[in-house]
Structures are given as structure tokens and as C-alpha cells.
Amino acid sequence: MVSPTFVARFDSDPSAPARCASTPARLTNPPSHSGMRLDETDPVMQPPRMSIPSLPEMMRQLIATPSVSSVSPQWDQSNQGVIEVLSGWCRDAGFAVEILDVPDCPGKYNLIASAGSGPEGLVLSGHTDTVPYDEGKWNTDPFRLKEVDQRWYGLGTADMKGFFAIVLEAIRDFDLSSLNQPLVLLATADEESSMCGARSLMDIQQKLGRHALIGEPTGLKPIRMHKGIAMEAIRVSGTSGHSSNPDLGNNALEGMHRLMTELLRWREELQSQHRNPLFEVEVPTVNLGHIHGGDNPNRICGHCELHIDIRPLPGMSLEHLREDMDRRLGASLAGSGLKLERVSLFEGLPAMETDRDALIVKTVEQLTNSPAGAVAFGTEAPFLNAMGMDTVILGPGSIDQAHQPDEYLAMDQLEPAMRIIRDLVNRFCLT
Predict the structure, then answer these.
(1) The domain containing residue 86 runs over which residues?
(2) How confident is the model at residue 269 (pLDDT cuts 50, 70, 90)?
(3) Which residue among 76, 101, 129, 192 is the active-site one?
(4) pTM score of the predicted model
(5) In the annotation, is 192 catalytic?
(6) Do 117 and 206 share a domain, yes or no?
(7) Would you say residue 70 has pLDDT above 60?
(8) 141 has catalytic annotation
(9) Using omega within 30 degrees of 0 as the cis cutoff, is the peptide bond preceding 325 cis?
């Protein structure tokens, strides 16, 4: 789910700052696809008000507004169009709307729509971006909502633009001026690539709410845990030379063999020490995913590079894992004369766990008659939890449809999803 986007050398500075980690600025007057300002706090410059469309029309407009995020510049797009559409609907629903530009991520914006006040409240959160798509493998237009066999097809129907339309439809008849605790609709940028939108929110020093739900597609089953993700490049540099005489060089590929042996030994130790039966794969994983070295059979290999993927369980720190790996790999090549370098291919996503006794967890378990479980894919939940919220992941649609051609949302999930949202608003904002 998370693509490698952040390149930094952690072997010398494991505390290197994150991309997009500076404090986000309030958006004043960025270029707009529609010609409207996005400064929702200036009443003089407010764009014309409009009525909230029907659920199918909201879904249609969201799907028709491209917002692909990608580590590849030729695919990457701004999410400004989606933010503009959502801001208008949220304002007309009775929310106060604030739009933040994401620092160091041009063309990327977060939206915070809030109603009510108080120390508790509910945050309904989702991301506005989609993954890239392979148009040749779609049987329908990815940007045109199409209904077939009680399914809505389109890029982002399940993952997860559709969630915003469902939320706004669910609360259509609520009087937001009568809330006893705040209700916040949060829309973020770039979850599918850098997660820069959610990361930047941690620096705004603003309490959004106490209880949060992220509407990722879970088939309306609650999730309170997921694994973390790290992707690392390990580089060994030696000296090339003629293969007829090993003394003429220093073989980086042989050095990498030592490191791979140590990595597999490390994986065995991690899996013997850490286990959580709530996960389908109960142990942390270390995958050796890609390797390249040398250029010819009759040359001593002068450079070799290995890419690995690490999926830690909740309670396992990415920083500590990287430190442990650096120590072990460094010891494996000690005295070899080979140069070792590790580069993080992206900043990494922490594992997430919300306490099983948290009120939001207990509430969604009661509403769905399902115990809160664990999943392998990553979300923005670690960042919301770090902001002081108790977060669960629950939304309509199946993760099996995410990132696939002909992505769809089964329409029989619409009303159950709206019923859960209405019950949560009643429970956390009105009582």
C-alpha cells in the first residue's frame, strides 16, 4: 500500500527529519482549477454556495476528479480538485472549513471540516488520493462512475473517495449547530505514496478530537491494529578486477552473501521473539526482495545492492530495528575492507495499535457485532493516534478491490455504512 518515496541515509543519522515534517501553513490563495480561492476563512472571498448533491452525484463528482499520488512524477497529480469539491459540500452541510497546504509537497492539501466544540468528539478521516491505474486493464473508464450488478465501479470508489460521499449523505439530516461535542471530517493528501498529508498534521498543534475512524475498505469490520513498513537498500562497495586473480579486487557480491546470511539469521531471531496471533501472519517479516551486483562473469564484482522489506508488529520500533540491523551488518563486514551503506527507500510507517478497551473500539464492536482485528496493510492511523486520538479503521468495500483494475464498491454496503456513521455521531457528538 505504501510506495518507497523518501530517500535518506540513516546509517550516519537515524534521526534524519521526515519529508514534509515542517509546520503546515494555512492556505491563502493557491492557483485553483476552478478559479475559486481556497481560503475558507475569508467571508468576502467565499465561493458561491451550492446545495449538497445526492449520494450518487457526490460519488460521480469525486470519481471524475483525478487525484493520483505517485512517487513517479509522470503520474503524480494535485488533490486540489477533490479538496475544492469537498470543501463546498462541507461548508453547505454546516461545517467550518479549513484548508492546509502540505509543506514541501506542492499541490497537496489537507482539509479539516469541523462543527461543534468540546474536549472529546469524533473524527471521520480519509485520504483524497488514489493509486495510479493501468487504463488498458480496466473494462470501464476509471474516472466515470458506472453501476453494474449493484456495484459502483471507478477509481477510488472503495479506496477511498467514496467514504466522503457516504459520510456526507449519512449526516445530511443532522443539525450540526446542536452538537454537544465536535464532529470533524478530515481529508488528507498522498496517503498512497508519502503520507505527507497525515504526517504534517502532527505539527499543527491542534486537537481535532478524541475518537477517530478511518474509512479504509474493511468490509465494515473494525480494525485496531496493523503492521508497520520499512523498505531499505543495502549497498556494498568493493574493488573490481580480473576474475583470474581474486587478489586483484575485493568482491562486493561475496560481502553481500555474508550480509544476506546475517539478515536471515536476524529474521529468525525476530520471529522467535515477537508473535501476535491476531495477525494472519503472526510474526514480523523480513523479505529479501531485489538484488543487483556486478556486470560480467569474468570481473570481480565491485558493487552490489539489495532491497529488503520489513513488516514489524505493534510494539516494535522502526528506529530500533534499523539500529539493530546496522550494528549486525556492520559487524558482519568488519575487517573485510568493503564499504557498507544502508539507505531508507522511504521514511517508513510505524505499526499501529489502539487499546482494545478504548471507547471507540468497544463502540464499533457493538455496532458491527464483530471483534476488532488486525490487518497487514498500512494506514494513517499511527499519525492520528500520535495526535492523541483513539483510532479504528472501518469502512465499506473490500481491500481486495483496492489498487486493482475495475475497482468497485458493492452497493449493499452503503446503507450499513451510513447507519454506523449515524450511530457514531449520535454516540460521540450528541449524547
Answers:
(1) 19-225+352-430
(2) very high
(3) 129
(4) 0.84
(5) no
(6) yes
(7) yes
(8) no
(9) no
